[in-house]
What we know:
Elements: E1 4-7, E2 10-13, H1 23-44, H2 52-68, H3 75-96, H4 98-110
Antiparallel strand pairs: 1-2
Amino acid sequence: MKNHIKVNGKLLQTNKRFSQLKNSQKDWIATELYKLYHDKMKERRTTRKLPPEHRDTVISALYDQIQNREIWIPYDEVKIYTFSKTTKIVKSFKKQFPKLSEEIEAEHANK
């Protein structure tokens, strides 16, 4: 029981890994991560990886949503998961929003 804490009468594992979550929880987290990251990319008008300060705001927003759904997982696990998916997210942005991507690329080429 050294890796557990009691919160609101529930026993929570403090060293839980992302892989230990239920598939439905993993799928929901992945979907939300893609939405948040894509929204931030649209806001910043970029087709590349976000700089650290913007990436951290995405991770924090995602972690807040995870806590609201009462999914317990350490912040570091969410951060590691986000880093592992960043390249896929950027590629999916270009596939999901081809016209917007071309527009943004053209803007940056003209500068």
